[in-house]
Amino acid sequence: MANLGNKKELIALSLRWTPTEEEKPHCHKILEGLEAPHGLTALRINDYLGTSFPVWIGMLPNMVELHLYDCKKSKNLPPLRQVPALQVLCLEGLEELQCLCSGGTFFNFPNLKELMLVRLPAFDRWCEVNWLQGEQVIFPHLKKLCIQKCEKLTALPEAAPLGPSCSQNHTEIRSAFPALKVLKLKELDKFQKWGSADEATQGQQIIFPCHEDLSVLDCKNLIALPEGPLLQELCGEDYEKARSAFPALKVLKPEGLENFERWEQVGATQGGDTMFPHLEELWIGNCPKMTALPAGTSSLAPSVGRSDIKTWSAFPALKVLKLKGLDKFQKWGSADEATQGQQIIFPCLEDLSVLDCKNLIALPEGPLLQEFCGEDYENARSAFPALKVLELEGLENFERWEQVGATQGDTMFPYLEELWIGDCPKMTALPAGTLSLEPLIGRSDITTRPLFPKLKTLTFRDLINFKSWGVTEVINSEQWTFPDLETVLIDGSPELTTLPEGPKLSSLTIREGHQQIFLAAIPIVIDSLSELAMSFKDAETALPAEHGAFELADSNNIKSTLTRLELGWGCHFLFHSNILGPCLDAI
Predict the structure, then answer these.
(1) Any idea where the domains of the chain sit in the sequence?
(2) pTM score, two decimals?
(3) Reduced to 3 states, what is the DSSP secondary structure of residue 463?
(4) Is the separation of the CB atoms in 169 and 176 below 8 Å?
(5) In order along the chain (587 residues), what is the average pLDDT of each group of 10 residues?
(6) Residue 108: how many CB atoms within 10 A of its CB?
């Protein structure tokens, strides 16, 4: 047997067990004889079959990393109270391990920064039952915690008090992880609580004061997030009546939570709205019981011109919002915005995707843009004044761009650059607007303005009832509805008979469209298009050749700018070789 204790320069050791049947009963004795020198800083053990670990592993004062993988019969960890330098602890595949901390007296991990617990099917508590944790924190400096496939774990460790809350009901602010930045929870079948006590009924408020990244995936029994303290106590800004357990959170990803339905615990303290003051990315997927986003706070001031209507936001710093597979999602705030005098706003949101939310009917009512944009947007409002990318798909009941009973004013997307809408069978039109900065040519009494002034890319797929681009009938062809639009793809919109108006349109793709769409494309082929692709669904919808034929030149014999042409079923063009663009690629 190797005498490792004499190898004073050894700093990292990896041991992998491949014992014969005769050697299996002697695994502990073998490992005990491989005692490493005290200068060891990293130890990795794979496939060890002993029921316990030798004492020397807990006597390495300089060990910074400990990795134990597939030690399937080990019921307890090595005694680690005398390993104060430990910073990384990874436990995976320890099938008999029930708790992390064992022994007769309390100890913590004073310098541990990263903890990974994976595939621990018997792990159901953090400390032995007879432990008295008292007011001490087990992980005072832990920064990253990943827990996966620990089927029996029901809660995070008991939180220790950080200090009294300033709220009138004298609740305590507590935290088990005062330094934690990253928390990943995945496939924890019984996980329900953010602390070992029932926070709501015990008068406790849980906080993760430094937490920046939270992922909770496939935890089917989790119902809610923890109740947090008032933000007035934690943030320098004025967050009246807003509270958060995650005041520093930047990324939140709840997914596959079958029973998640609330943003706070049942019985949470009254007089406070759940808020995420610094959240930048929110991804929510496959949470079938979630009906709404949190209500937010009204501290953003009343809406201009309406003292009875306040602007609310639970996500004042959010930049990316992805919602997918939320079967019951209906509201953008936990209250009914339209009837409660609320206007929801996402002031910094740039990227919004809403996919397969079959009960969502409308977008939220937003405040007047005069309050948030430097330009003069009279009577225009938006809940998304900074939005650049919008994707809506699989929304069976989506039919309006604002809530029922919304305050008068045009719904507008002043900075939207990409719009993607697919499989929304009840959508018939884009939002309508009739007011503008410039008078309508020839009509001094009626003006119009683009509601998508920065839009560059537009994609429609399977909008079977879509008919209107949102402009009113009084608007004539001399007005540009989409002044910056460059690329349009329309696939499967049989009721649409017109094309969007825009002077910069250069790429147009239409598939399975109405016959009239084909004729509408003829003038812009000469004016601006560089790419054109068109096809009809079948012979019944295709145009007869005498109606669909046209020349790729205007009356003055000016050549088209077209460089790529793709024609499918039912399209007919009359070509003149002397006027075709020199780079035309016809398919």
Answers:
(1) 317-505
(2) 0.86
(3) coil
(4) no
(5) 70 85 75 87 93 89 95 88 92 94 74 97 83 72 97 90 54 85 97 70 75 96 88 59 87 96 66 82 96 70 43 87 95 59 84 96 84 64 93 94 66 92 94 54 53 93 89 46 91 88 87 76 69 73 52 54 77 50 50
(6) 16
